[in-house]
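Contributing new records

If you add data, match the layout below exactly. Sequence lines come first and carry their own label; structure lines follow with theirs. Keep one chain per record. Anything else will be rejected by the validation script.
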Amino acid sequence: MKRNRRRGLAKERILMVASSVLVLASLTVTGIWLGKDGKNQDQGYVVDLSSIENNTTTGLAAEEEIKVAENLTNQVVPADDLDYDPYFQETNSQKVENPDLSQSDSMSDTTEQESTENDEKQEDAPALSTAMQPALTFSDADTLIWPVVGNILINYSMDKTVYFPTLQQYKYNPAIVIQANEGDLITAASAGKVISVFDDPQIGKGITMELGGGYEATYGQLANILVSEGSFVAAGDVVAEVASPTKYYSVEGTNVYFKLTKDGVPVNPMTKLK
C-alpha cells in the first residue's frame, strides 16, 4: 500500500512539473510572439516629429503668403484711379440718392468770403495805420506850452550876442536856457513826431520833434528819454527827465535847452510860449 501511495505521489509530482514546464514554455513562446508583433506594430506607428514640424512651418508660411497676397489684391488700385473717390462716385450714381450739398456749399462760400475779407483787411491795414497818424498842423498862430517850469537863465538872442558864464564869452543864442532841477519831468511843448534822438557834447542828450508847418522843436540836457524816433507825441506828454548839466553849463546850473525853428531858421520860443 505504501509503495502504491509513493508511486502515486511521484506521478503527481512528475505531472505537476511537466505541467509547469508546459505552462512556462507556452508563456515563453507567447511572450516571444507578442514581442515580435509589438515591434512590427511600433514600426508601423513611428511618429516623425521633424517631418510634422517641417510640414507645420511650411503650412504656416503658405497661409501667410496667401494672406499677404489677398491683402495686396485688396489694396491694388488701378493706375487710372489714383484720385479715385468711391464716396464721390457712389453719391453721384443714379442708383443712390445724392445728399443735400447746399449746406456744405454755403459753408464753403462762407469760408471763401471770410478768407477774402481777411485778405482785404490785411491789405488795408497799412493804409488804416497811415490814416490814423495824427496830422502835424502847427501854424504861426499856434502856441506852445512850457516844457518845464523855471526861470530863464540865458535868453534867446540872434540879433546880438549874450554872455555865457561858463564859457565866459558872448555869443549868439538860438534857444532859451530854462532853469530846472535834476530829475524834473520834461513835457512836449506841442504835439509832434520825434524825428531825431541824439547826443551832443554841449547840450547833452536831446530830441528833435517835427511840429508841422515847417516848425521843429529841440530839447537838450535830457536824461531817461521815453520816446524814440518815429513816435508821435501829444502836447503835454512826458518825453524825458532833466539831466545834470554838461560842462558847458556848469556855472549856469541844471537847465533845459529849448530851441524852436521854422524851415531851419531859429525862432524866439518866447513868442510862442504861453
